[in-house]
Design brief:
heterodimer; A: 401 residues; mainly alpha; 16 helices; B: 468 residues; globular
Chain lengths: 401, 468
């Protein structure tokens, strides 16, 4: 396994995510034999490419955002999808516009678009510094919104609840990876200007702190499994912001590569799995029986569960390494408050996921006579197994390396 | 071929695996020997508790009253979660910058989390205090299963003794909570008529006393473990015997032997604790008139009184409640002269005093006066128990009638305290729900609100730099 180069893993994992999406698409299309059944999968291929590329550029980010909105807006009859498309269009459009305005303002102040030159110009005390102090946080806004950390945590949850299960996980992962790249690109070389670094450090610390705290509280309150997966995605966005703040050097680069691969396969597996779980309810006696997936296909359920556990950072899963590395970076860089908030978010994720699967397993009660108890389609189960295989491969490759 | 595991078998396998990890956490370190910097013992404890929690869940969901059982044992995930937190904190400690605030609080978090797990398993936190009143989820072992949990709690605290006893604040709070638990548990054991339930509460009480002994650090951990085994092991055997036709109470000789064994185990466990508590009072505390010294003396006195009362009641129940089981068979079966019950009683009788003897041979020393005073509660409890049994003694008639009244008082005291705790916890939960409710409502708005939100944040981003 160690013989497989890292670049191949970078492409293999998104490819597995696309395969899982294709299998889910077959179920969505009713398993028809038409040659066009898998046609729509073409639209998620650019999303997978965006995840696999090391640093998608600003233009790629705009394209991805547009593509995701277009995928969601295509089905006019589906109100949830349309609403989700509307929200994403307004929020992503607004934030991208503001960020581009901030970047242009910085270019105007410094007379250049290159980061390194901008920091050098801003370092020279030749004029008032109010303008760039405003422009810099504005230019980061799109990255923060795309990462989906609270207070922008509503869109991943909306996407997972409203979007199609074959498209939503890859869309969320692609947008988040683009967000991380947006921030990394904007912040490259900022160490050369301590004032700018101080401004962005304070901003990133505040945003990731709020993201951890609000994300944890939201996760404990949510009842829909899809929204819980969305909030877990937003917590991963918060992890990325924390790592941008605390991480440095090649370790940080490697972490981001692992984070994006894990996010893609984790969200794919967990997003599909969530579609088969019941909504938490204290009063609905129907939930006592547990979900059909656990009742009829317990091993496929365990396969689906693996990706969810990994997203939540449950010890022993690859996701735990992602959470742990971010926590170590925060501990080493003396961000103690953020570390405490990350711990809180991890506890909330862990507890929620454990509660979720126990609720899903329910109580083994036989269906009443004459009531049909249909199983989960084979293609959907295969998709869960593909997600689990991706998570296992990822973990094994990290262990070996 | 049906590959689905039977819930009973799966639960049993998980429980055995969990207990094995709790007893021998080094097994995980042996399996993952390439990771020496990890707190593998704490991770093994966390995994062990997680497996036990999973076992209870498996049994609960397969039981006839699954809904009740699931609700009853759902709290078992909390100790597991707390132990995972302790393990995570332990993982981060070596990586923390020396100058970071986290370097100060991470060890405290690790200690507090592991203590939380141990205390909750030992019914020492208000969240799941009365679980020993209830039977377990697996039909064949229902009355016995809850006794596993305080034992697991003690084992967790025993294995991680170094982690939590070194943090003074955590150690002091844990000791105080454990002593309160010991007292409450003995009150409950005294108040309950059912012998099996009383035994479960005695296990809670004695595990709490043993854990407090770890906190005082007055004896070697191995000696504490032996003392705990001598007392709780005997109770667990008696509880198992109750499920098999009350075998430890068959016959007058066996009952007498168990009475002495129970008393000896309890006395041997409590004596070093009471001595250590008394020895903590420095003679200068009485000469100095400072408020701090007075408060210290008062706190120690409170702890000593709580522990002494717990010991009096435990030894009383141990002696008074072991009555020979009525023989219902017309034709007696020829039993061997020496049964497993005899052997266990003898072991219980010898382990506690034997452990103390080993401690003395190993150099443990206690001051005379505290040691003498510390032996009184067990003697008083045992004597009162014996007195209650001598039905011809002139003192007994009044004592017997007082006994039923005091049992009622004990029941009332326990219920009042647990009710108060429940009200407090309920209020906290409701407050938390009320505070967090808007977070759920936040997601019900329409798209315009979100874009307004982004605009608001952007304006804030514009204004904030000027405020600096």
């Amino acid at each position: 396994m160690s013989a497989i180069p890292a670049e191949l893993w970078q492409w293999l994992i998104p490819a597995l995510a696309v395969l899982a999406a294709a299998l889910r698409l077959i179920v969505d299309r009713g398993g028809g034999a038409s040659e066009f059944t898998l046609g729509p999968i073409v639209v998620v291929l650019p999303l997978a490419v965006a995840i696999a590329l090391p640093h998608p550029g600003a233009a790629a980010t705009l394209l991805i955002a547009g593509l995701v909105v277009a995928i969601l807006a295509r089905d006019h009859g589906d109100l949830l999808q349309s609403e989700c498309a509307l929200k994403l269009a307004w929020v992503l459009g607004g934030s991208l516009a503001l960020s581009i305005a901030g970047s242009e303002l910085l270019a105007m102040v410094t007379g250049t678009r290159l980061n390194a030159e901008q920091w050098a110009v801003l370092g020279a005390p030749i004029g008032p510094d109010d303008l760039w102090r405003v422009a810099l946080p504005l230019s980061l806004l799109a990255g923060l919104v795309l990462l989906g950390g609270a207070p922008f945590h509503f869109w991943p949850a909306d996407l997972f609840q409203g979007g199609r299960s074959w498209a939503a996980p890859l869309a969320a992962a692609a947008l988040q990876v683009s967000g991380a790249s947006w921030l990394a690109r904007r912040l490259s070389g900022i160490e050369s200007l301590p004032e700018a670094r101080a401004v962005t450090s304070n901003l990133l610390a505040a945003v990731s702190g709020i993201a951890f705290l609000v994300g944890a509280a939201t996760l404990l309150q949510q009842r829909r499994p899809e929204r819980r997966i969305g909030t877990l995605a937003s917590l991963h966005g918060a992890l990325a912001i924390a790592m941008l703040l605390a991480g440095n050097g090649p370790g940080s680069e490697q972490w981001f590569a692992r984070w994006s691969a894990h996010l893609a396969i984790g969200l794919t597996g967990a997003g599909l799995f969530a579609r088969f779980l019941p909504v938490t309810s204290d009063v609905d006696p129907a939930n006592r029986r547990g979900s059909v997936l656990f009742r009829r296909h317990p091993f496929s359920a365990i396969a689906g569960l693996l990706a969810t556990l990994s997203l939540a950072g449950v010890p022993g899963t690859p996701g735990a390494a992602i959470w742990l590395e971010a926590a170590r970076a925060l501990a080493a860089s003396r961000h103690s408050t953020l570390l405490a908030l990350l711990g809180l978010a991890w506890l909330a994720s862990f507890a929620t996921v454990m509660r979720q699967w126990r609720e899903a397993a329910g109580i083994p009660v036989r269906a009443p006579e004459g009531v049909p108890d249909p199983g989960v389609p084979g293609a959907a189960r295969a998709a869960l197994w593909v997600g689990a295989a991706g998570v296992i491969l990822l973990g094994a490759s990290w262990l070996v390396s | 071929m049906n590959l689905r595991p039977d819930a009973k078998a799966a639960g049993t396998a998980l429980c055995i695996g969990g207990l094995a990890l709790l007893m021998q956490p080094g097994a995980l370190a042996w399996a993952l020997r390439e990771q020496p910097a990890w707190p593998l013992d704490t991770m093994a404890l966390a995994l062990g508790i997680e497996l036990i929690s999973l076992a209870f869940w498996c049994w609960a969901r397969a039981s006839a009253d699954a809904e009740h059982q699931l609700r009853r044992w759902i709290w078992l995930r909390r100790p597991a979660q707390a132990t995972w937190l302790a393990a995570a904190a332990g993982l981060l400690i070596p990586w923390t910058s020396l100058y970071a605030a986290a370097a100060q609080w991470l060890p405290v978090v690790a200690a507090a989390a592991i203590v939380w797990a141990g205390l909750e398993l030992m019914a020492a936190l208000p969240l799941a205090r009365p679980y020993s009143d209830l039977s377990g989820p697996l039909l064949v072992m229902r009355p016995w299963l809850p006794a596993l949990l305080p034992a697991a709690g003690f084992v967790v605290l025993w294995h991680s003794g170094e982690l939590w006893t070194e943090v003074a604040g955590v150690r002091e709070i844990a000791a105080a909570l454990l002593l309160v638990t010991a007292l409450l548990a003995t009150l409950r054991a005294f108040g309950r008529r059912q012998w099996a339930t009383a035994l479960r509460w005695l296990i809670v009480s004695e595990s709490a006393i043993a854990a407090t002994l770890i906190a005082t650090a007055s004896l070697e951990p191995t000696i504490v473990l032996l003392l705990w085994l001598g007392s709780v092991g005997g109770r667990a055997f008696m509880l198992a015997g109750e499920l098999r036709g009350a075998t430890p109470r068959r016959g007058a000789t066996l009952s007498r032997l168990w009475r002495v064994a129970g008393w000896a185990g309890s006395a041997a466990l409590s004596w070093p604790l009471l001595t250590a508590l008394m020895a903590r009072v420095e003679s200068t505390s009485f000469t100095s008139m400072s408020v701090a010294a007075l408060i210290t003396v008062l706190l120690i006195a409170f702890e000593f009184i709580a522990a002494a009362l717990a010991v009096i009641l435990t030894t009383y129940v141990s002696v008074r409640r072991v009555v020979p089981a009525a023989e219902r068979r017309r034709v007696m079966r020829p039993d061997p002269a020496l049964t497993l019950s005899h052997l266990s009683a003898f072991l219980t009788l010898s382990i506690g005093p034997g452990a103390l003897a080993i401690a003395f041979l190993g150099g443990a020393r206690f001051p005379w006066t505290p040691a003498l005073i510390a032996s009184l509660p067990a003697v008083v409890g045992g004597s009162l128990g014996l007195l209650g049994r001598k039905s011809r003694a002139p003192l007994v008639a009044g004592f017997e009638s007082a006994g039923s009244r005091t049992r009622r008082v004990a029941r009332f005291a326990f219920r009042s305290i647990t009710d108060l705790e429940r009200i407090g916890v309920g209020m906290l939960q409701r407050t938390g729900r009320a505070v967090l409710a808007p977070l759920r409502d936040l997601h019900t708005g329409d798209a315009q609100e979100y874009v307004l939100f982004v605009v608001g944040l952007s304006v804030l981003a514009l204004v904030l730099p000027f405020l600096r």
